[in-house]
Amino acid sequence: MADELVANCRTLVISKYDGSTDPQEHLSYFENVALLHKYTDGIKCCVFATTFASASQQWFNQLPAGVRGSFQKFRSLFLYQFASSRKLQKMELNLFSIRQTENEPLKEYFQRFNTGALEELSAIQEVKATSFFQGLLDGDLFKSLAKKSVSKFDALLARAAKYINMLDAQTSKKVNRGEKRKEIMEESPSNNQRSDFREKKPLFYKVNAV
């Protein structure tokens, strides 16, 4: 395995990243190349490090060894470290402008945001997840995400879908209870009728003896 890793850790013919340009563009280009070469997770970490220069190389040298073995952690830290160099994308502004309005059901906000996200396919997962969370009103889903956040938009959508299904089930249960109560009330004598039954007295007819 070690020999395989060393054999595949050759420098790619792509521009070096020095921390002054958009990190997402550099990462996206590398991931396309990694997909083409069918790199494993460990090899991605090794080869990606060879694309660094200057400030990014210094940053990489300070990373704990454990982080370098997981490409998901590696890429997240990389994007976070050089976030200030990212281009301010119009698509990100569009996503952050989508906010849940007062009294808007979670399901409607979910659908509206997802429609906007589909129009901005190039927006990264982390940006989508952050903008969705920041647009949420204070509620059960907001509290859940505040306690246990998710960085991937797909994972956030999955959790949001669970809460929406739960709310739909609760609403359906309330409606069914209301309809059942209405049926019972319609089938039972009204309060006035029951009162009439209690107040009515039997009629006695006086019969004269012959």
From TrEMBL:
Domain of life: Eukaryota
Domain Retrotransposon gag: residue ranges: 47-136
InterPro entries reported for this sequence: Retrotrans_gag_dom
Family annotation (PANTHER family): AMINOTRANSFERASE-LIKE PLANT MOBILE DOMAIN-CONTAINING PROTEIN, CCHC-TYPE DOMAIN-CONTAINING PROTEIN
Coiled-coil stretches: none
Bias-annotated ranges (Basic and acidic residues): 176-185
Residue segments, region Disordered: 174-199
UniProt lineage: Eukaryota, Viridiplantae, Streptophyta, Embryophyta, Tracheophyta
Listed name of the protein: Retrotransposon gag domain-containing protein
